[in-house]
Write a structure and sequence with these properties.
4-stranded parallel beta sheet; Rossmann fold; 8 strands; 2 domains; 262 residues
Length: 262
Amino acid sequence: MTEGYARRPRVGLFVTCLVDLMRPSVGFAAARLLDAAGCEVVVPRAQTCCGQPAYNSGDARSAKALASQTMRAFEGLDYVVAPSGSCAAMLKLHYPRLMAGDEEAEQRARAFAERVHELVSFLVDVRGVTSVPGSFAGRVTYHDGCSGLRELKIKQQPRRLLAAVSGLELVEMPGTETCCGFGGLFAVKFPDISNAMVSAKISNIATAAPDLVLAGEFGCLLNVAGKLSRQGSPIACRHVAEVLAGEMSEPPIAHSASRGVP
């Protein structure tokens, strides 16, 4: 290392299952943003699911095994960053709770949790980012995902970064903090309630009349995009990282995560 130059922090990118399987462009956008923020981006090949579905369904044994695998995969890195509020909350808040009762495992989970951040929160709160590579000529509205908002207290960070995007006009929808009805297993277990919730969200989006709906939670975007598509709406959806990074080559999200819901 050249004397006088600080070492770039090594950031492990936790890609998330949905991004890996359905929207890899979000992972590339996240990597671009982290690189622009002066970080060395590492994507451990051994990473897998964070264990959130198992944890939420009461399968603590499987969740613990996945948590242990994840912590091993990200050993030796300065930070762990995820482009998802729910996955970041699982890693940061629920791993220590999951490991409670095993002193060594809980201590390890707490040390791991201290290094974990959601993407936009990391960029703003840790790296102090004030400018981004992306540009977008149009109106956008932002949906606050429940885990990011309520568990990680992420609210102003994405809006600060969006304010730095050249050409972008942010228009707040009514009820931006209201759940879209996805909630992972919730949408499967309670489809009628989920549909009523996403229908209300779509109505609020229509009131804002944006060109694009953004969020930091891919599950929410699948749910909202699916409903918009089924209603024939021209409004598109993207992960906020895609706009911030200028990674817009992929088509907008238009896939339903709520199977069988009208």
